[in-house]
Amino acid sequence: MLYFYFGFRNTRFFTTGETQNLIVDFAGLVLLAIAETYVIVSGGIDLSIGSTVALSGVVGASVMNHYQGHMSQTNLLLLGTLICALVGFGVGLVNALLITVVNLVPFVATLVTLSAAVGYALVMSGGGDVGDNQAAIIWSSHGWWAFTWLDLIVLGVMIVASIWLHFTRFGRYTFAIGSNPFAARAAGINIKRHIGMIYVLSGVLSGLIGMYFFIRIGTGAPTTGAQSNLEAIACVVIGGVALTGGSGSILGALLGCAILTVVADGLIFINVPPTWNQVVVGAIIAVAAGLQALRSKGARR
Amino acid sequence: MSDVRTPILELRNITKSYGSVRALTDVSFKAHAGEVIGLVGDNGAGKSTLIKTISGVHNPDSGQLLVDGVERHWKSPHDSMQAGIETLYQDSGLAPDLTIGSNIFLGREVPRRGLLGKMGFLDQRQMERRALEELDKVGISVPAGRKTVSELSGGQRQAVAIGRAVMWAKHVIILDEPTNHLGARQSQEVLNVIKAAREQGLCVLFISHTLPHVLEVTDRIVVLRLGSVVRDSPTSEYTVESLLGTITGLNK
């Protein structure tokens, strides 16, 4: 609906080029929103995803830079993907240990990694961009219709992640822990292990997004993903996932991402200065969260 | 009472401290199949610590726990469940955002058949159907359809939680304040489910502050005070007054 609104205000909004931009912005946000959905449904929060994007991008880029020209482009990108996933795994594991072993609340634990990961990305990169892989950028523009191959991969991960949350035992336990951790534990669920796995999953997805941005811009930059945390959390909240845990759906989070992306891109198209963007996003979150609060008040009578 | 059968649950000299605070001192009692035992005591008497010890939330410092005559040590609540002991904690029995069926089968989900099942996919339809059937067996009727627990009334929630325990327990059910916050009619339904559980040959540990309920439904009452068992007698030997006196320590 929003898409058509902006389309009628400025018909150039409908062109393939702009749709492509929309999809690209959307795809970058979607995996982070999915990671955040898993975490928030389990009753936690992960503030470190944006930093993990930056760190994995920088580390992946350094490694790829080192081997550039020594192996085929395909192998280079696969290696980078692996490295990024491993970095994400590492950050996720630190989160998991801080939460389940040191018993920090998720907010504090991921605040630690938020700061440390982006800090280390700055240290490693010296503050600038790492690597220059033009071939990756060129590859990133290939694809089918308005979708690049990269978008289609993201779409695939998206589908698997949503099915996994809603139809499997892992997903069921995630909802149960978020809804009532005492009941989940009393039912014999190893909640510490499960929560640990969720943060590792969130880290790996964020790491892969680090690779996603590398392919799109051809370098690893420590500033990538700086705003992603709050954007991803905003998508999840707009999508109706309760911050208290236990309810919500990936589909909702995707809708949240779609609303946020279309509004952000659309505002530019109807000549609203981009500086207004964040204000509008704030207003949308307020409306979404307000509706949710009213609804849950109604449900509890 | 001299019962020659092997007790289904036996505690011998269970002692537990939290730091310098002694929560339980030499607690011993036996419980048999088909018996409802009331566990009463004032706040801080050690009831919660005791049931957490039986259900494996934490371990005793010393003493023995025997199930069906065999000494057991729990590493987690999962172990006690495997041994046939179901515990229903006060206010923590169910996950309100999940459906009735998902709650009944929580931790014991039915996988789909074949490859999908091995990948962790669940047979939700079967779980919802069997949940209603099993609840019906113990006289609990809940609305059909995939309702979440948050959509049920307080009494219905408690009934579902107890039905869940009865459905899965092989030997012992521990009920912590199951009639708390319930109206008279709803409490009576809960007490009826407890009686149904006894008919099925289960042993029920019933923890409650509502003494008339305890006197109505139990066969024997164990009174705790300051972490020790101060009296363990058949229910027929108590009145509300004598029970209250034993709990507070004003008797004797």
Would you mind describing this structure in some detail?
- The complex is a heterodimer of chains A (301) and B (252).
- Chain A is 75% helix and 1% strand.
- Chain A has 13 helices and two strands.
- Chain A has helices at 2-9, 16-41, 49-67, 73-100, 106-125, 134-140, 149-167, 169-179, 181-186, 191-217, 228-238, 250-269, 277-300; strands spanning 143-144, 147-148.
- A two-stranded antiparallel ribbon of chain A has the order 1-2.
- In chain A, helix 4 (73-100) packs antiparallel against helix 5 (106-125).
- The longest helix of chain A has 28 residues, at 73-100.
- The radius of gyration of chain A is 19 Å and the shape is globular.
- The two termini of chain A are 33 Å apart.
- By secondary structure, chain B is an alpha/beta fold.
- In chain B, the strands form two sheets. In chain B, strands 6-7-8-3-9-10 form a six-stranded mixed beta sheet, sandwiched between helices. A four-stranded antiparallel beta sheet of chain B has the order 2-1-4-5, with helices on one face.
- The two termini of chain B are 22 Å apart.
What secondary-structure arrangement, pairings included, does this model have?
The complex is a heterodimer of chains A (301) and B (252).
Chain A: H1 2-9, H2 16-41, H3 49-67, H4 73-100, H5 106-125, H6 134-140, E1 143-144, E2 147-148, H7 149-167, H8 169-179, H9 181-186, H10 191-217, H11 228-238, H12 250-269, H13 277-300
Antiparallel strand pairs in A: 1-2
Helix pairs in contact in A: 1-12, 2-7, 2-8, 2-10, 2-11, 2-12, 3-4, 3-5, 3-10, 4-5, 4-10, 6-10, 7-8, 8-10, 11-12, 11-13, 12-13
Chain B: E1 9-18, E2 21-31, E3 36-41, H1 47-55, E4 62-67, E5 70-71, H2 77-82, E6 85-88, H3 100-104, H4 114-118, H5 124-137, H6 154-168, E7 172-176, H7 184-199, E8 203-207, H8 211-217, E9 220-225, E10 228-234, H9 240-248
Parallel strand pairs in B: 3-8, 3-9, 6-7, 7-8
Antiparallel strand pairs in B: 1-2, 1-4, 4-5, 9-10
Helix pairs in contact in B: 6-7
